[in-house]
């Protein structure tokens, strides 16, 4: 009886060992594929504005939708919409921290895009006032 019990334990441990090894191999392969996909995505010709920000975690298009702006270079409109949405979603006004953080992250993403790709002065002169010389 003890002999059969020992054989069952041994067979069970072999099965578990093989299953664990197979799962480990699959996880390793999936990890390599994910790393390869990330490397290909960073080397692709897609612009930074189409990719998700590593800081804010949202894309530029999503940020524009959250703040309801079409032109991110119109900083007056972006700031006005941000201030309005941030105040409305304040907890004291019946808003939620979740929505307020979404608004904040959207503004953060747009600011990040503006730093990475500053506006061209000739094409966006209608949105920014030019500094005057003293």
Automatic annotation (TrEMBL):
Gene Ontology cellular-component annotations: TIM23 mitochondrial import inner membrane translocase complex
Fetch the Pfam families from UniProt.
Answer: Pam16 (PF03656)
Transmembrane intervals: none
Q: Which domain of life is it from?
A: Eukaryota
Where does the protein end up? Mitochondrion inner membrane
GO annotation, biological process: protein import into mitochondrial matrix
Q: How does it sit in the membrane?
A: Peripheral membrane protein
What keywords would UniProt list here?
Answer: Membrane, Mitochondrion, Mitochondrion inner membrane, Protein transport, Translocation, Transport
Database matches in InterPro entries:
J_dom_sf, Tim16
Q: Where is the composition biased (Low complexity)?
A: 32-56
Question: Region Disordered: start and end of each range?
Answer: 32-57, 109-134
Name the family the entry cites.
Belongs to the TIM16/PAM16 family.
Q: Which PANTHER family match?
A: MITOCHONDRIA ASSOCIATED GRANULOCYTE MACROPHAGE CSF SIGNALING MOLECULE, MITOCHONDRIAL IMPORT INNER MEMBRANE TRANSLOCASE SUBUNIT TIM16
Under which name does UniProt file this protein?
A: Uncharacterized protein
